[in-house]
Specification:
Strand order of the largest sheet: 2-1-3
Structural class: alpha/beta
Order of helices and strands: EHEHEH
Number of strands: 3
Strand content: 15-25%
Length: about 60
């Protein structure tokens, strides 16, 4: 990712390969959807997540419609 700003990668479940890879990047933090919090959302410029993570968030918080 060449965005130049902090990136939060939300994962629907544990994924050790993604978590290990992200550790090598200073501006990237991984977090599981079950641990999602406002502080992490506000402190990162970008949020990257697979569709499964979006589905989990929608089931937890509801849709925006």
């Amino acid at each position: 990712l060449s965005v130049g700003s902090p990136v939060l990668v939300l994962l629907p479940e544990a994924d050790t390969s993604v978590e290990r890879s992200a550790r090598n990047l200073a501006e990237v933090k991984t977090l599981r959807v079950s641990c999602l919090n406002v502080r992490d959302l506000l402190s990162h410029e970008y949020v990257l997540m697979p569709r499964d993570a979006v589905a989990q968030i929608e089931s937890w918080l509801g849709t925006l419609e």
